[in-house]
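Much of the work behind modern protein science is quiet bookkeeping, done one molecule at a time. The protein below has been through that process, and both of its lines are reproduced in full.
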Amino acid sequence: MVVWTDQERAYIQDIFSKLNYEEVGPKALQRALIVYPWTQRYFAGFGNLYNAEAIMCNPMVAAHGTVVLHGLDKAMKNMDDIKNAYTDLSVLHSEKLHVDPDNFRLLGDCLTVVIAANMGTSFTADVQAAWQKFLAVVVSALRRQYH
């Protein structure tokens, strides 16, 4: 079980309160698909992902990025039991979608870059430490069903 300080909880809640989901989610997923092109294989049904411009203009990529970011709400609202809150998502990604679990970390890294850029100087080292801890727990929860 992860122990959260009151300050860490406050930092995480503050980040989420300032997020524009329809901007940050798409940017994070777009970045992941461009920086780590092998992740594109999970999105074959999204059409043209042949170059950065196509990815940036793809409405399906943008929509899924927003869905992913809203999915993190569940973790924020269940910080004391993220692993159980994410059981169904872990099963979906491992057993049905067969997503390489390392991709969760890669997407988290891209999300961190986008959030840091949006928050600017308010994304302090302490805020980042809390955010990285939060993402590590989320990634661990998503990897839970993998064998």
User: Anything to note?
Assistant: The two ends are 21 Å apart (CA to CA).
